[in-house]
């Protein structure tokens, strides 16, 4: 049987040290649990360059560890337009990221499959992007509780995404 080409999902926030790494860890966990880890590759990036080369926020790492998620060796990266030809699904964490990614794609003359991540949350699927209720708030300037709140939002959206993933893979 021929091997199935990889399906690439990238979660994108501003600095790639808080929200998008949480999404990366949670989506990867859900993909593996669904038995799709052999065909789906999950990663993350930021639209900004402030934290390039830095590891994930320690509050994020403790929140993930407390909830049995793994994100070993994460190093912040910045998405650029040349990524779009290698990605199957781009997930923006908030409206600003969504607009930045749309503008980047327009300048490059490409049309990536771009969604606000929370649009996969079944309770929010009726909203049209970009909508403020689809934003995953940035917990960077708050306390550790904000990371738990963000994790819960991301888990809801990831669960919704996983229900749609087999159709996206043609399965």
What does this structure look like?
This protein has helices at residues 19-33, 58-66, 95-108, 144-168, and strands at residues 7-13, 40-46, 89-92, 114-116. Helix 3 links the parallel strand 3 and strand 4. By secondary structure, it is α/β, with parallel strands linked by helices. It has a four-stranded parallel sheet, sandwiched between helices. The mean pLDDT is 95. Helix content is 37%, strand content 12%.
Describe this protein with a few key phrases.
12% strand, 171 residues, 37% helix, 4 helices, alpha/beta
Helicity range: 25-40%
Secondary structure: number of strands: 4
Average predicted confidence as pLDDT: 95
Structural class: alpha/beta
Task: State the distance separating the first and last CA atoms.
Answer: 15 Å
Write the layout of secondary structure elements.
Blueprint lengths: L6 E7 L5 H15 L6 E7 L11 H9 L22 E4 L2 H14 L5 E3 L27 H25 L3
Parallel strand pairs: 1-2, 1-3, 3-4
């Amino acid at each position: 049987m021929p091997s199935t080409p990889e399906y690439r999902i990238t979660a994108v926030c501003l600095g790639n040290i808080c929200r998008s790494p949480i999404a990366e860890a949670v989506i990867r966990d859900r993909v593996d649990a669904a038995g799709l880890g052999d065909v789906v590759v999950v990663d993350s990036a930021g639209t900004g360059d402030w934290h390039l080369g830095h590891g994930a926020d320690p509050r994020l790492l403790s929140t993930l560890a407390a909830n049995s998620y793994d994100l070993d060796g994460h190093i912040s990266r910045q998405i650029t337009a040349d990524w779009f030809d290698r990605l199957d699904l781009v997930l923006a964490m908030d409206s600003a990221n969504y607009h930045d990614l749309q503008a980047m794609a327009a300048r490059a003359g490409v049309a990536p499959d771009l969604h606000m991540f929370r649009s996969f949350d079944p309770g929010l699927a009726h909203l049209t992007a970009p909508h403020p209720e689809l934003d995953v708030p940035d917990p960077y300037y708050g306390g550790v509780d904000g990371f738990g709140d963000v994790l819960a939002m991301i888990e809801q959206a990831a669960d919704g995404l996983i229900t749609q993933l087999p159709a996206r893979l043609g399965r």
